[in-house]
Amino acid sequence: MWHLARIVYLGTMAGVLGTGAGGILLALGRRPKGAELSFHLALSGGVMLAVVFQDLLPEALVLKGPGATFVGLFLGLITLMVLRPLSSRGGTDLIQTGLFVGLGIAAHNFPEGLAIGAGYLASQQLGLGLALALCLHNIPEGMAMAAPLLAGGASPTTAVLLTLAAGLPMGLGALTGGIFGHLSPGTLAGTLGFAAGAMLFLVFHELLPSAVQLKHPWATTCGAVAGIVLGLALWSLF
What we know:
The protein is mainly alpha-helical. It is built from 9 helices and no strands. The longest helix has 31 residues, at 34-64. The chain starts with a helix and ends with a helix.
């Protein structure tokens, strides 16, 4: 039982501290707007693309091949496509975007928590390394959520609390991984594919269009490229 509690604690802290740190970094400064907001949104989209194509999809394809991976990806896209209109009730457009980005982050934190739980069972060093790497990856994702929330008028405290909440599913994923140990490759591949589909929808339907609408093309382009480079660099460290 104590062993399982440590796995849950590790996964929860990796998720909450990562996304929460991203929220705190933006909440401590001025509310992003104009070119700065465009850069932040595009940066976050670039990081998410790096996570999808460097981490989620390659891992899923290795586990089970294209079948389960692309079924999961399609389901992730469809799920967020269906949920998007439900998030449009009340609040400004930017706040809706921030909340929807948070939903996507929460969806992809669960399978990453699974990886932490299963990795820790295989080796404590592997589990700790995964938790640290994913925690660092979550920082720009927390910024992606906080930027539109703050720009839309949410208070810094609210923005930080919401980014912290988006990291909680990683703890639930770690619990699941710790209980069931080695899940079937098809289940893991489908879950990772689902997360990839959700993130791709966020990038191409929310983050990049929102950045482009601000009409600062250089900030958008530089942010997207910088985000891809940052995401690849963070993952290569581990």
